[in-house]
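User: Here's a chain of 320 residues. Predict its fold as tokens.
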Amino acid sequence: MKAIWLLLFFLLSSCNNHEPDLKYLRAYMIKEFSDAHKMIAMDKESFFPQKSIVAPQMTWKTLLRIEKRDTTLCLFYRIPHKRLSKGKGILKITKIKKTETCDNVLERTEEIKISELSHLKLYFTSKRERNLKSKTEFKAFHFYFSVSRTNEKDLALELPLFNIKSSNLKNPNKLRNKTKVFKKYDEPWRDTLAPGMRVYPGDLELSRAIVVDGDVWLNYAENSYKFCYRVDRTCKITKDFDCGSCKRGWYSIVDHACKGGGSKLCGSSRCGERNQPACPRGTSFEEPQNGSYCFRGSKAGFCRDGLETYCDENEVLICK
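Assistant: Prediction complete.
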């Protein structure tokens, strides 16, 4: 009986000590990194494209700080020894509070730990980078990670970062780059991989009911629209420019002959379709009538085949 209990003990111990494999690490990174809103490379010497982290050997380094909605992750790596068989690399990812730093948490219980690693590389950039000599390309707003492990197929991960804007993607080797200066009517939120798109974790609990990520349901033909800038026939501004708040972007419509352009709507353009705003062709194609390009048959906008331009009750040139 004693022998049976000892056997069970060793079996349980081996299960508890069993490390995840690289497939698990890949799944973990996709799940935990995809909704990050800030990513910081913590070690300048370790952060170069296509360069494995090889020195100083047998030393722990803090490589990444990943900030999420409610928590922060720290990625640590013990750099492997070139010759010692027991000196392989070790990766640890530890969860901390948003107010904490990654400085003194290496010994804390980790979220994930994998050993027997080598040839670890990681990189990200907010601008597309190409190297014609090595025939490599790094896409903007993507996280690149690769690593090898004994007796496993190498892991190579290319992960899009939808929630991170360029100012929150911290590359320590490019801090000398000038900060982008935004001008009036610029849209800083568009400085992302896919403007208007956000990734949320599956277990997110919403405090209130919301429409899925912005103005996705706006449809002019269904009398559902929102002007983010509007002028009247005399070019008087009746609604100040606020198109930067449109969650799904905005588009110009054809209405009045104003020097600064016509009115604008929030949402995704369906221009040229039946009962939708006409697609702007350009003011050089038509002369205004009474200060406006909005009249039946106006060539300032165009429609799909079989449809004509009309002026509706909002004084917007539409297709019917």
